[in-house]
Specification:
This protein has nine helices and seven strands. With 305 residues, the chain is an alpha+beta fold. The chain folds into two domains: 1-112, Phosphorylase Kinase, domain 1; 118-305, Transferase(Phosphotransferase), domain 1.
C-alpha cells in the first residue's frame, strides 16, 4: 500500500510510534468492533498530554474470506477524515494520525470516558436508551449527512470499494460517541444492488439505522419482505410516549428510505423534516405533561393546607 499516492496531508506513524500511544493490552481495550478493536490511548508529553481513541483493523495474511474489504475500509476512512471538504464538521471525530506499518490503525482526538460515554452499538437495542435520545441521534446524523452532501463529498464507485460511503459519525450527540462503522456495516450487502454510491445510498443506510432505533431490533432480511412493509407502525410498543400518528409517519418514512430503487427514496432533507417535526411534537407534549404535573402538585399543596 503506497499511501503517499493519495496525497494525504497528515504524517503516518510507524508501529513503534503507535506503541507509545497505547499498549494494546486488555486493560486499554474499549471494545471489539466489526473491523478490529478500539483502545484507550494518550498522545503528547507533559502538560500537553491528552486522551485519544485508537482504532485498529485486525487481520492476518493470507486474507480470510470477508477480510479483503478491511484494507479498503481503512483507506476510505483515512481519505474521508483527511478530506478538507468533509472533516470540519463539529460532530465528527478528529483524526490525529494513522499507522500502516506493522498494523493498520487510526488515532482519533477523542476522549472515551466509561462514566459518560457510550457507543451507539452498545445501547441501540437497550431499554434504557430512550426515545428522545434516539431521535437526537437520528436528527444529528441526518444533519451531518446533509452537510456532507452539500459539500459534494465524493462517494466513489461500489465496484471499486463496496463499502464506500460508510462513514464514521464521531459524536452522535452529547455523551454518545461512535468512532466505529458498526451502525452502518449491515448496509453493505443491501447497497450491492446499486452501481454507484450517491447521496441516496446514504439515505438507505440511514434508513437501516433508523429501523433499529425505532424498533430496538437488529435489521434482518425479513424487513424487506412485502408482508413486513405493510405494517403501519413498527415503533417498539415500549415507547408509550409516541402517538400513533407520529409512529405511522416515521414508519412510512423508514420504508421510503430503504426502497430498493434510489429514485424512490426521499432526500436527507425530507427525512430530517419528518424527524424534526416528530421531535417538536413530542417535545410540546412533554412540556404539557410537565406543566400539568406542576399544576397538579400546586393544587395538591393548596388542598393539604
Amino acid at each position: 500500500m503506497q499511501f503517499r499516492l493519495l496525497n494525504w496531508d497528515r504524517r503516518s506513524w510507524w508501529g513503534e510510534d503507535l506503541q507509545q500511544i497505547t499498549d494494546f493490552r486488555d486493560e486499554s481495550l474499549i471494545k471489539k468492533t466489526l473491523s478490529g478493536r478500539l483502545f484507550h490511548g494518550t498522545i503528547g508529553q507533559g502538560f500537553e498530554q491528552r486522551s485519544v481513541i485508537v482504532k485498529t483493523w485486525d487481520f492476518h495474511l493470507p486474507f480470510k474470506i470477508g477480510q479483503y474489504q478491511l484494507t479498503y475500509d481503512f483507506c476510505d476512512q483515512i481519505e474521508f477524515f483527511t478530506n478538507k471538504n468533509a472533516n470540519t464538521h463539529p460532530k465528527l471525530a478528529k483524526l490525529c494520525t494513522f499507522c500502516c506499518d506493522t498494523r493498520l490503525a487510526a488515532v482519533y482526538d477523542e476522549k472515551f470516558d466509561e462514566n459518560i460515554t457510550r457507543l451507539l452499538s452498545d445501547v441501540i437495542l437497550e431499554d434504557d436508551f430512550g426515545w428522545d435520545d434516539r431521535m437526537k441521534v437520528a436528527i444529528q446524523l441526518a444533519q451531518l449527512l446533509i452537510w456532507l452532501h452539500e459539500k459534494a463529498f465524493d462517494f466513489g464507485s461500489v465496484s471499486d470499494h463496496m463499502h464506500k460511503g460508510v462513514k464514521v459519525p464521531g459524536k452522535c450527540h452529547s455523551g454518545w460517541e461512535a468512532p466505529d462503522q458498526g451502525m452502518f456495516a449491515q448496509a453493505s450487502s443491501f447497497l450491492m444492488f446499486s452501481c454507484n454510491m450517491t447521496a441516496k445510498s446514504d439515505v438507505s443506510v440511514f434508513g437501516l439505522l433508523l429501523v433499529e432505533l425505532i424498533t430496538k431490533k437488529e435489521v434482518d432480511d425479513l424487513f424487506f419482505f412485502p408482508i413486513q412493509r405493510d405494517k403501519k407502525n413498527i415503533v417498539d410498543e415500549s415507547f408509550k410516549e409516541v402517538d400513533p400518528e407520529t409512529a405511522s409517519r416515521i414508519t412510512s418514512m423508514t420504508y421510503r428510505c430503504t426502497e430498493m430503487k434510489a429514485d424512490d427514496r426521499p432526500t436527507m432533507k425530507d427525512v430530517l423534516n419528518v424527524l424534526e417535526t416528530a421531535a417538536a411534537k413530542m417535545g410540546a407534549k412533554g412540556e404539557k405533561r410537565k406543566r400539568d404535573a406542576t399544576n397538579e402538585a400546586i393544587e395538591a399543596a393548596k388542598y393539604n393546607k
